[in-house]
Fold this sequence. Notes:
The complex is a heterodimer of chains A (109) and B (119). With 109 residues, chain A is mainly beta. Chain A is 0% helix and 45% strand. Chain B has no helices and eleven strands. In chain B, the strands form two sheets. In chain B, strands 2, 4, 5, 6, 9, 10 and 11 form a seven-stranded mixed sheet that branches. A four-stranded antiparallel sheet of chain B has the order 1-3-8-7, with no helix packed on it. The radius of gyration of chain B is 13 Å and the shape is globular.
Amino acid sequence: SYVLTQxxxxxxxxxxxxRITCGGNNIGSKSVHWYQQKPGQAxxxxxxxxxxxxxxxxxxxSGSNSGNTATLTISRVEAGDEADxxxxxxxxxxxxxxxxxxxxxxxxx
Amino acid sequence: xxxxxxSGPGLVKPSETLSLTCAxxxxxxxxxxxxxxxxxxxxxxxxxxxxxxxxxSTYYNPSLKSRVTISVDTSKNQxxxxxxxxxxxxxxxxxxxxxxxxxxxxxxxxxxxxxxVSS
Lengths: 109, 119
């Protein structure tokens, strides 16, 4: 079964850049989607298909994907960005299914 | 504006079947897209349960496949989840969502509903 590995936590000061990674075997060959989830709320899609942003998502959120690592980058981090972030791919194996990463807690210092 | 709303019992007894419905407004299920269920145990991460296309084609998480049934009712513009033989490990917030493509991103989510498995 395909496994996505995320760091449990990332900390960054306001105004700095946060990078959250999502590791997987040859993940660069898959489309990666990223979600932000704040406490008590449903997840919100912030990046889809590696690097596209849904309407309404600030340009500060960007994504990249190559080799064995996909990265969500949040520039000029604000206090309101503090949340859990999850990556997601489609594992098109013999028993195809959606896979989520374990999630990363972003703390704004 | 597409909106999804989960409904169903908040408490289910062990060994029984969990049943939830997701009502969709602002979009006709029969027009396309995939419709999925995702759950999140308290304090833990997201777990995909399965998805269904408007035609009825289904895809399930291999780890839950033997216990899961997802169905769609286009006349009521809703889709449903049944999870059988539940245990305490199935206690979670259950979300329904619309997926752009099979396995694609979930742009629209319901608010989620907490289902507790307990006697």
